[in-house]
Amino acid sequence: MKLWGGRFTKETDQLVHNFNASISFDQKFFKQDIDGSIAHVTMLNQQGILTQEEKERIIKGLIGIKEDIIEGKLIIDETHEDIHSFVEANLIERIGDAGKKLHTGRSRNDQVALDMKLYTREELQQMKELLIKLLSVLHISMKENLDTYMPGFTHLQKAQPITLAHHLGAYFEMFYRDYDRLSDIVKRMNYCPLGSGALAGTTYPLDRNATAALLGFSGPTLNSMDSVADRDYLIEFLNALSIIMMHLSRFSEEIIIWNSNEYQFIDLDDAYSTGSSIMPQKKNPDIAELVRGKTGRVYGSLVSLLTTMKGLPLAYNKDMQEDKELTFDAIDTVKGCLALFTGMLSTIKYNKPRLAASAKNGFTNATDAADYLVNHGVAFRDAHGIIGSLVLYCIEKNTALEALTLEEFKAVSPVFEADIYDAISLKTCVEKRNTIGAPGKSAMEEVISIHENLLANL
Ligand code: ARG
User: Fold this and answer.
1) How many domains does the chain have?
2) Considering 24, 183, 218, 276, which one is annotated as catalytic?
3) Residue 67 belongs to what domain range?
4) Which tens digit of pLDDT belongs to each residue from 272-326?
């Protein structure tokens, strides 16, 4: 049953076998393993290393294995060491001696490097699709909320008024960069390790360009040692996944705050909330909390693989088998989080009156009041001081800047005229900010049309 029994005189200790085996998790890429083998065998035949008949028998056998596993007719036998051993053993069982030629000119080292790359490349593509869905939901909500005023915060203290479209737009930029980062990783990872053998290539006249092309790679990798020892692309991928989770987690944190009784900026849909077993009134933002919580787990995968790789001499070492479970877990976690978060986001109800009321209080127009003075010839530093003292005055009187009389304004600076009220109105504070990237409506409309183009080309 083993691929390497010949040199051994004793059975492997059962605990050693269990500790060493990877089939419980590497069966996840049985399809990719078989696809890689089909490409390999096709090339071996082209190069005259296998006959046409051998090739056909092997490919037919491999396709049969793949279909049978998919249809549940063939159960992956976990007593084998890994998925590679299982497929090869099953092939030999099905087609006899021809099956024993499958592994010609190949090692499990280049085989596993290939399988993992193929699997990751596919998952990465699915991740991009999920990001497109999230971006589309953000885009729709942005278009609907160009006039939905809300406070913008720094230090979680009210700072200046913005719109909900502008706030959501910040996340659009983050998730768009995440999308772009994923595309960027593919450019570097998309080289085929197959044909690198255990570490030093092979003596067979393999056509590595042919297998690379058959499997959709840009070309073959250029150093056989690097090919079997490189896990950079997984580290890059886990890094990209960690950044996606960091963005989702920040957004989740805001949703949790916005959903709190103190803020009441939003109402989460019942379908995306949970209750309490004891407190009947509760409607909790568990999805957002879980997304925030799972972020640590994905960071853990990244740090784990970086640490596994840091001391490994060239070329392949068994330590690298540890790349699988943590990558699979990170992929499944991020896919789940993206899908759920997008569903939750698309069903959120924004409490517009509450957002607007909150945008108004807390002196969010103080900067604009200072700018008014600057526009009337007062130096900015002096204007800052004057408005600061007015804010203090308002706090003592429990009132707002826009509620002061013109006399009260003039008492601190004779420069103030009746147009101050318009200058510091909520609408003006937002709408005057129209440089590209700012919350003003026309600036936002320009950005939204740029986004529209981006989305159409993803
Ligand atoms: N399960 C192994 C891994 O994931 C496959 C490669 C094994 N190669 C070897 N020479 N033992 O890395």
Assistant:
1) 3
2) 276
3) 5-104
4) 998 888 888 888 999 999 999 999 999 999 999 999 999 999 999 999 999 999 9
C-alpha 321 – ligand 1 centre gap (Å) = 6
Neighbours of 449 (CB within 10 A): 10
Q: Do 156 and 240 fall within a single domain?
A: yes
Q: Hey, CA dihedral for 317, 318, 321, 322, is it positive or negative?
A: negative
Q: With respect to residue 452, please indicate whether it lies within any of the assigned structural domains.
A: no
Last residue of a domain, one of 323, 357, 391: 357
pTM: 0.95
> Active-site residue 276, yes or no?
yes
What are 19's two structure tokens? 């500790």
Query: Which CATH number do you get for residue 390?
Result: 1.10.40.30
**ipTM given for this complex:** 0.96
Residues with CB under 6 A from ligand 1: 22, 26, 82, 108-109, 112, 318, 320-321, 324
Looking at residue 276, its pLDDT comes to 83
Shared domain for 296 and 423, answered yes or no, is no
- Which residues of the chain carry a pLDDT beneath 50? none
Do 124 and 93 lie in one domain? The reply is: no
How many degrees, rounded to 5, is the angle at CA 379 between CA 375 and CA 385? Answer: 105
CA-CA distance, 175 to 146, in Å (whole number)?
Answer: 20
Last residue of a domain, one of 49, 74, 104: 104
